[in-house]
């Protein structure tokens, strides 16, 4: 690294800003330019700062120099200089900008001094004016009568001052603000120790639009401690600041949307929009995922989320209602610009914009407008939002629609995350299902299997099952679970399943299950396939008399369940469970033996069937055992259907069942 180049102070000789340069631990003054001499007078060079600036009010400035040298960070200091006693001039104001620099004499500080007297005085005058003058000032008494002290009401609303805090006054306040304003005022008026009352609400102007007004009222307390009246002042020059605050708040809320699916995400979005920007909001997603839409294809939009403000009829239940996308709606989506329809109260809603159930609701709820806003993510239109105003709510102005569009536009970032997650989930599930093949036909027995992914879009598991028949007729059954809930887990699952299948086929029926799992463990460890995996590897060989001999090895997996044709089901724990795969490749593994009689059922499953966040594994196994006993005589597909009802849908679940025939003949 090259050394920092020392600052040449001559650069500042002709600058307008006042500049001084200090160096060393005592901040010796090395340089001042002509502008600084004109502003604060000449200072002797070569002296420490405390001697070059002996003024009493320079202590804070000297402290800042110490901090800049100690921390290496720039500082800024605001200062003022009072005139000499008796002088006709006002105080002068300055800003010192202190920046660490390297000088030929060592580390130092560059100080730039700016005279801000004119700006500061202008700001002081402005603040005094704003604090002294409001658009409206009035006095209100306990009986509700009001006297206007600084007129402004009629200029704002176009009607005379009402004189009382009654219906005439509230008729000009936005319907959505009346109840909250009245409640807040009554609470302030009844308080034992009344303080300043402040509120922001919307007032209908002479032009018929609504404008935000900020009001502050202070109690006038008599000597006895009673409130004799309130003095109130209001200003209507708050629209921009109120809109900026609302926009910032809504954008922060929509940025926090985190649903696992598109339906869940948009269910959160509509709650941001209602009731702040609309009385009701409906989200419709297109049936086609490609954009632009195919020209002649029939495209529908599915209703996935809705919300309504309090006081309106509840929205229709979500039942995947659809509407065919008309050419007009296509034009709105392709243009990417919101479109507002003004509706006569009690009149018909234009057909083809929303599902029929929503059309009926809009009429029943007294809708006065319907606005369609395209939902765009990365230049692709997913669908559209339909928002309404109802009853006495005014129809949206252009700035209202612009804010609505802005909020929905900013929803695309969390929606993009959901889309990416869903794509990864589809990829993983496709990979998983490609490996979960249909079980083979087995003479003298029946097989059935099922796999159910987790309900959450964020949960993609590594569960698998497998069944294959070796050349001599031996049936191989596998069940396994790779740790993790993502695409990597699904990929590792496919690799392990394929390797286990290949090893079983290559080693043949005379190799024990324990030996096969040990070799799989060594290969998985050497190839770094998976960090942690549980599995059960089992062989089933048919015996005379309709009986079957099962040998298996368990690598840390939940034990198989045996459901006898008669008698209580029980778990096949063998002599204990060996460690999972990819934990201790050198560990010895055990082969267990069990005989199955005619009509017995063997069940392999993954932990999603027995584990829940609120119950232990023992409780889950007992539920499984009891359910298997109740449904033991049902065909295997129906049995698996009943057992899957026990599963925690937040995790994926794999099951494979084997049932011996009750017919002992060799041909069965």
Based on the model shown, name its key terms.
Beta-Lactamase, 4 domains, 17 helices, five-stranded antiparallel β-sheet, 668 residues
Largest sheet: 6 strands, antiparallel
**What percent strand?**
25-35%
Mean pLDDT reading: 86
Spatial strand arrangement across the major sheet: 13-12-11-16-15-14
Q: Class by helix and strand content?
A: alpha+beta
Radius of gyration: 39 Å
Topology:
Elements: E1 18-23, E2 28-32, H1 34-40, H2 49-52, H3 59-71, E3 75-81, E4 92-103, E5 106-115, H4 117-132, E6 136-140, E7 146-150, H5 153-157, H6 167-170, H7 175-190, E8 197-204, E9 210-221, E10 227-235, H8 239-255, H9 262-273, E11 280-286, E12 300-308, E13 322-324, H10 327-335, E14 339-342, H11 356-364, E15 367-377, E16 380-390, H12 398-410, H13 412-435, E17 445-452, E18 462-469, E19 475-482, H14 487-507, H15 513-527, E20 533-542, E21 548-555, E22 561-563, E23 570-571, E24 592-596, E25 601-605, H16 617-630, H17 636-644, E26 653-660
Antiparallel strand pairs: 1-2, 1-5, 3-4, 4-5, 6-7, 6-10, 8-9, 9-10, 11-12, 11-16, 12-13, 14-15, 15-16, 17-26, 18-19, 19-20, 20-21, 21-24, 22-23, 22-25, 25-26
Task: Write a concise synopsis of the structure shown.
The protein is α+β, with helices and mostly antiparallel strands.
